[in-house]
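note to self — DONT lose this again. spent like an hour looking for the file last time. sequence + predicted structure for the chain T wanted, 569 res
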Amino acid sequence: MRRVIFSIYDDIEHIQDRWHTNSYQVHQIQNYWDLLMANKKEYAESIGVEFKFYHNTMKDFEINAGFEFARVNLYKHHIMAELAEEYDEVMYVDVDVVFNTKENIFEELDLSKGIHIKEQTSSVLDKNIQKLLLKEVGQRSPTIKYHITKDLLNGADNHVMNTGIMIANSETIRSIRYYDRTFEASEKIRTIKENNYKRDDFSLLRDYYYPNNESIFSYILENHNIPYVLMDEEWHTIIQDPREIDWDKIKIAHFINKKFNAYWKNTQNCIYSIYIEIPDDKLDNPRGHSDDPVNKSLRTKQRLMKYKDRLIQNHKDYAKAVGAKYINFGYDDQYKEFAQRFPDLSEYDIINLYKVWLLDQLTYDYDLVLYIDYDVVFHNYINAFDFLSAEMKLCCDAVEPIDAKVFPNQAGYFEHYNKDFRNPQAKYWNAHALLQEDDIDGDHFIFNTGVMMASRQVMEKLDYFSDIKKVIETMKELKEFSMYPEKVQNSFGYDNETIMSYKVKKNQVPLQRLPRAWHNKHDRHDIKSYDIGSTAWKSAKTGLKSDCKEHNAVMTHFISKNFSLFFGE
């Protein structure tokens, strides 16, 4: 019996997307190219089948799919059909697939039952298209694939297939007739888009329909009654969302996130934090909470001191579990030398600049570096280095202005503006002022640097400290003289997150905005919730547990400093 495993890859010109996803994927595949190729060849050889690789062979494949990446994915079905004329059984794998088994998949799966394929239906945000907001859905998300297929099937429910791995016998492959039926499906998709505004269930999502290979594949299987078998997780494990990776239970891994270091473990990683007790006479005076008479900075200091040993042990335990070096920085000679560079800044502002400087310095010695504020705790040992795209992106929490309630065009916004220098809105306008000084327009993000991950490449692009004295001088000037309303100008400060926003925008730094899984922020409740054992405390504890479960939180940033909710006492 003749069997073959094949893969394809074309060096296409990718559309530049806002989040640099395309360039990141290309970057990762290029960096791991030799390992990826060797893995597939070695597996094929070990089970006695041929391996074929098609590199930049798509030039003669004439089909208009709207997007070049969509054309590549249609092309793989065309090659699979051609190979079915020569081989009895054919397996396709994407380049980002890694074999982790010595078992012969052709022998383990019963291909007489149909084509074996993985489904992702559970990732669909909502099967009712009218309940979906466009911002929630990307072009390659299971959600848009589901709805394209659903419309192709005239409203019928369906599986969302992932064609990163496909294996079938030649008879089944020939019955699919993918190439011929693609034209029919593509025309139907075009018609659906054109008639969208005439439909009773009109949706903006349909304006973004295109000939997605997996949608068309699902449509063909269902519409033409092609036999198929949904693959078990072990034979097609998708690596994308936070999870504990147990390689003993994974035979084939499909790295949608392109984080191949999770398998090869070839990066040197570091986690660090800072604990410096600011003397009482050097504490700044941010606006506090109305139900707490104690200075906010002093209250923070007291709560950190009480839990510092348990916090650092939590950090050490996580670092050990994920195989990373852990460093806790404090008030040492290095910090004192750094602080001398900023004699006019508060100790709080210096420490927050210092954490970014340490991130920059540590990326000289480590491939990937994770910073966590001292008030961050880990809930489990899911490895951040296996999932965050820090090789070429700054991984950090960042929100849009609207999410921080910045509404400059709203009547009365500036009249009622009453923020202090720690407020996210103040940081937005402070960064806005810095950018205006450089004639840079457009919205920018508001950062929370309680959790950051980066690499040397990212920090060089960020270029945070090359002109730091000039930036601080400009911030001083803006605090005294600017075009902004007096209330806004008075809220300006010297915050590291303001500078981060300015630098990311100015230097066009690729960004991965951390979702709640990686930066679950716990905000303050009323003062009663700090009374251990009280009704308010129990309610806050239940809320935290529920919140962490909902967002699959790996770490929580206790902005509230209510650590008893985590440690229990």
